[in-house]
Amino acid sequence: MDWLERAPIILRLIPAIIAIALIAYAFRAPGAIVLFIIGLAFLAAVISLNRVNTADITAKIRLPLKPGPGDRRTAEELGENPKVFQIIYSDPIVGSKIEEFLLSRSTSRPSNRYAILHEFVSGSKTTYLIINGEDQDIESEIIESAIASFLEGVSIRPVKSPNPAGIIPSRSNKIGHDKDRVFIGYRLDTPRLEPVYLYYRDFEGHIGIFGSTGSGKSTTLRVLASRLLNQYNAGILVFDWTGEHKILASRGFKVIDVSTGELPADILSCNGEDRRDYAFEVLTRALDLTEPQAYLLSRVMPNARSLSELYGMVLELPEDSRWDREVKRALQRKLGMLVLNEGRRIFRDCPGDLAKDSASGIVLDLSNIMSLHVRRLYVIMMLSIIFTEAYRRYSSQGENIPLMFVFMDEVQNISMASDILAVILSEARKYGVHIIYATQSPSVMDSRLLLNTNTKIVHSLKSNKDKKLILETMGMDADWFSRLDKLPTGTVVLQSISQPQPILVEIHADTPSGD
Fold first, then answer.
1. Can you give the C-alpha Rg of the chain in angstroms?
2. Exposure on the CB side of residue 51, measured as CA atoms within 13 A
3. 449 and 417, same structural domain?
4. Which parts of 151-216 fold into alpha helices (H)?
């Protein structure tokens, strides 16, 4: 009788009254029968008046979604425009405490509707809290604050699109495969080997792969890229800094030598007038322009339709003073990397529809570009083009947009453009672009990149600075500090949205039996 535990003290005395009556009756005390009947009548009246039924209330707030694409809650069941929160916790006791709290709220506020939804997808569970009814905005703030404040180990965050309720279709429906999980290896910290998977929401939150040279991070990146190509109907683009990912050609990828100009990256040719400000910002940061140089660039930028035109316009700027001449020549040298020598081929045009072209998987081999600075500029320009094109599709088509997965190895090589990459990571996911990057030096990266990376795959790290940073961002205890540099090649610590507690995993390229 759980309802008695939540009832006022006077109601909790009812069982005691009945017990005293039975004892009195046993000793033939006068009035015992009357006292017993009064107790039972009082108990029945309380139950009737308060309509307290534990099973009904529990069913009211706990609505588990069964595994299966057809089991979806309708708007009629949960009400219109509910407030939805995702609740993240690992301790089952915490889950029962949340239910007890909501049961209490539901009895005291019968006009409100509370629901806990457990969405099961390929063995992974996501828990949602849905609130509807009178003053739901205020009620939502109260409950959110109470859960976050009084329960340890709980993270609660608002969800704009309550996908688990079936009110708004989930973007994962666009994945063209009946399984939404990607096998990556086997768990090593359990008595038997258990297969470990990454789910779509893990990729949606971006993935960071960290590890020193020789730890196996590039192999992990290839495993993810090749398995995504086999399972998802999506564009997949791999930036190959050193040429070591060309072996993906044997797994169905098309390898393009960027130095030939087959897939150019002229950011001005791809951006209309409505996106000129963004192109200006990218060029300013990528070329590391000073304020005077940026000012000169802004004077000619509005009329340029390509990088080569922009360079020609800069050449024609008047030199009214020595200062003008020095600033102009410096800007000219920096722009020259984009339109002269190697840049003439690499930045000559717009690459076209990358989402469509990369549907069969593309590896962009950067290793034959002699200038390291030109390599960096190409990656920055191409990323910016991908981002702006995804934004355009989202603006015109809404959520009905193609997915694209972008893989970047040795991402520390473009740390000069960390601001641009941080913006892309923070916004790209809602436009259907998901980034998977690998680096041997997480400590040289902008901290915003780590904050916007929800799935972390950590190989062996040798630098104490790198280890300390990773431990802090993953919330791991100090015992791991002495272990991270001793992980065998191919062994990782994994933390993701679907696996919030770090686990030890051996990366495996082959599909597990029966999968």
1. 30
2. 7
3. yes
4. 200-204
Domain termination site, one of 143, 169, 195: 169
Domain match, 406 and 335 both? no
175 lies in a domain?
no
Q: Mind listing the pLDDT tens digit for each residue in 429-475?
A: 788 889 999 999 888 887 778 888 889 999 999 999 999 999 888 88
Task: Give the chain's mean pLDDT.
Answer: 77
- CB contact at 8 A, 333 and 297: no
Helices 136-150, 92-108: axis angle to 10 degrees equals: 150
384 and 319 share one domain: no
Pairing of strands 455-458, 433-439: unpaired
Sequence-distant (6+) residues with CB within 8 A of 467 are: 461, 481, 484, 485
* Number of domains making up the chain: 4
Write out the DSSP string of 76-107: HHH-SS-EEEEEE---HHHHHHHHHHHHHHHH
> CA 185 from chain center: how many Å?
20
Residue with the bigger pLDDT between 290 and 26: it is 290
Query: Taking a C-beta distance cutoff of 8 angstroms, is the pair 197, 185 a contact?
Result: no
- Assess whether 39 and 63 both reside in one domain: no
Taking each helix axis from N to C terminus, what angle separates 307-315 and 291-300, rounded to the nearest 10 degrees? Answer: 110
- Give tens-digit pLDDT for 49-106: 443 333 333 444 444 333 333 334 443 455 567 788 878 776 667 777 777 777 777 7
Cα separation, 375 vs 354, in Å, equals: 19
Q: Domain of residue 395: give its range.
A: 181-258+356-507
Q: Which residue's structure tokens are 């320009």?
A: 381
Q: Is residue 37 domain-shared with residue 69, that is, in the same domain?
A: no
Q: What is the CATH number of the domain that holds 88?
A: 3.30.70
Pick from 99, 134, 169: which residue ends a domain? 169
In which element (H, E) is residue 35 found?
A: helix 32-50
| Residue in 3, 116, 139, 136 with CA at minimum distance from that of residue 59 | 116
Query: Residues 138, 81: one domain?
Result: yes
DSSP 477: -
Question: What CATH number does residue 410 fall under?
Answer: 3.40.50.300
